[in-house]
Design brief:
The chain has 8 helices and no strands. It is mainly alpha-helical. The longest helix is centred in the C-terminal third of the chain and has 35 residues. It is a multi-pass membrane protein.
């Protein structure tokens, strides 16, 4: 029952996080003053361009290194799993959990990289965009789209969570079919245990 309560609470918190993220984004775009002669919400301005240019170059370097390390960890764990004959049971279980966790984080990592990478590149190409496409005010408003990150991450996380729960329910349903076929060989306590597990994941 504690597992079932945690699953329901996790879904509620995910929906709550998405609602808060979209509410903040709506407030930034529509309720904050954006007239040209007033201060508006922008992380970029002509006075701090040099400092932000250095900051974005550093962020881009860190982001690329993080992606390389993430893919390296996933590759090493998958390579180790291909030869698990010499590993103990606990090590094989931990290796499987590592791969499952890293695989579940792939969409989150891609979403994070896409948002941060696009912001950094846009900063680096500021002069070109400013000269040929738009004025300063429009550019500064469009480049300050980091709040999109706060909307995408909980959505992707919720989708991943739902898919994970669906896989677990499918596994538990298959196990219960096998248990039901051999129910006469089990005692009442074992049967009750599998019934509780089926109710938790369904």
């Amino acid at each position: 029952m504690a597992t079932l309560a945690f699953c329901r609470l996790g879904q509620f918190l995910s929906f709550l996080l998405i609602t808060v993220s979209f509410s903040l984004t709506y407030w930034l775009f529509y309720d904050y003053p954006t007239e040209i002669d007033m201060t508006y919400c922008s992380v970029m301005s002509p006075t701090n361009f040099t400092r932000m240019n250095f900051f974005m170059s550093s962020s881009l370097t860190v982001e690329i290194l993080a992606v390389i390390i993430f893919n390296g960890l996933l590759y090493i764990n998958r390579k180790r799993k291909s030869d698990t004959s010499t590993l103990k049971l606990a090590a094989r279980y931990q290796l499987t959990e590592n791969i499952n966790t890293l695989t579940m984080c792939i969409p989150l990592a891609c979403c994070h990289f896409a948002v941060v990478f696009s912001i950094c590149i846009t900063y680096k190409l500021r002069i070109k965009f400013q000269s040929f496409f738009m004025d300063d005010t429009t550019f500064e408003e469009l480049v300050s789209h980091a709040e999109i990150y706060g909307c995408l991450i909980p959505i992707v996380g919720l989708i991943e969570y739902r898919l994970m729960q669906k896989r677990k329910r499918r596994v538990m349903a298959g196990n219960f079919v096998n248990v039901r076929d051999h129910m006469e060989k089990m005692d009442a306590l074992t049967i009750a245990h599998f019934r509780v597990m089926r109710n938790v994941w369904n």
